[in-house]
Specification:
It contains six helices and eight strands, in the order αββααββββαβααβ. By secondary structure, it is an alpha+beta fold. The chain has a domain of about 55 residues. A hairpin with a 5-residue loop joins strand 3 and strand 4. About 20% of the residues are buried.
Length: about 250
C-alpha cells in the first residue's frame, strides 16, 4: 500500500512539473511574440542611454532614409587648413557674385511704393541683404531668384554666400569635440519633388485622399518650389553623438 502511495505521489509530481514547464514555455513564447510584433520591418530601433530599446516607425522620422543616403561624412574628415581654403575661396566667390548682382540690379528699392494712413506715398530705400528672404509654403521661391553654389565637399553644396559660415561652424564644433554631419544640403527641384512625393505616397498608402495626403506631407517636407534647400540656404545637421533624424535634430 505504501509503495502504491509513493508511486502515485511521484507520478503527481511529474504531472505538476510538466504542467509548470508548459506554462513557462507558453508565457515565454507569448512574451517573445508580443515583443517581436512591435518591431516591424519599417521600424528603426533606437537604444537609449539607459540601455532600453525603442521601436520607431522610420516613416515618421524626417526623411530618414534619404537623408542618410545624402549624408556626407567627408566634411568632418577635412583638416582645418583645407576648411580654411574652402572658406576663403567661397568668400571670394560670394563677393564676386554680390558685385555682379549689384551692378545689374539697379535701384535697390525694387520700385516699392508705401502708402501711409494719411494717404501719403513714398518710395523707401534700404540696403540689400541677400539673406533677408522668406521661403516657405506661403512664399515660394521667386522666379527671378538667382544664386550660385559652393561645394564644401563631395555632394555637400550650399549657397556660395553661406559656405564660409557653415565651414566656420564645422570648425568651431570640432574644436569643442563635436563632429558635425551634413544631411540633405542643397537639393534641386527634381530631388525636392521626389522627397515630397515619397512622403505624400506614404499617407496615400495609409488611406488618406489626395488633399489630405498632400497636407500631411507638407507638415514635414516642403512642397517643391517652397524649400530653402532648393536655394542652398538650408542644411540638416547631425552631430556625431546624435544621429537620429527626429524632432531633436538640428
Amino acid at each position: 500500500m505504501r509503495q502504491r502511495r509513493k508511486e502515485k505521489t511521484h507520478f503527481t509530481r511529474k504531472i505538476i512539473a510538466v504542467i509548470l514547464t508548459v506554462l513557462v514555455f507558453v508565457m515565454t513564447a507569448s512574451f517573445s511574440s508580443t515583443a517581436t510584433a512591435t518591431v516591424m520591418d519599417s521600424d528603426v530601433i533606437f537604444v537609449n542611454k539607459d540601455g532600453s530599446r525603442v521601436a520607431v516607425d522610420k516613416s515618421e522620422l524626417l526623411n530618414t532614409e534619404e537623408a542618410l543616403k545624402d549624408m556626407s561624412q567627408e566634411n568632418v574628415s577635412l583638416e582645418d587648413d583645407e576648411l580654411d581654403k574652402i572658406a576663403e575661396t567661397s568668400k571670394r566667390a560670394a563677393e564676386d557674385f554680390n558685385k555682379r548682382k549689384a551692378s545689374g540690379s539697379g535701384d535697390s528699392s525694387h520700385n516699392i511704393t508705401i502708402v501711409d494712413r494719411d494717404g501719403r506715398s513714398y518710395t523707401p530705400s534700404f540696403d540689400e541683404d541677400w539673406a533677408l528672404i522668406l521661403i516657405n509654403k506661403d512664399h515660394p521661391i521667386p522666379d527671378d531668384y538667382t544664386f550660385e553654389l559652393a561645394t564644401i565637399t563631395g555632394s555637400v553644396k550650399v549657397d556660395v554666400r553661406a559656405a564660409e559660415s557653415l565651414v566656420e561652424m564645422i570648425k568651431q564644433a570640432r574644436s569643442e569635440g563635436i563632429g558635425l554631419y551634413v544631411a540633405s544640403p542643397y537639393r534641386d527641384l527634381e530631388r525636392q519633388t521626389y522627397v515630397f512625393n515619397r512622403k505624400k505616397q506614404y499617407y496615400l498608402d495609409m488611406g488618406y485622399d489626395e488633399k489630405q495626403a498632400y497636407d500631411l506631407a507638407a507638415e514635414t517636407v516642403a512642397p517643391p518650389g517652397t524649400s530653402e534647400h532648393q536655394v542652398g540656404m538650408a542644411v540638416d545637421l547631425i552631430a556625431s553623438g546624435y544621429k537620429d533624424l527626429d524632432e531633436g535634430f538640428a
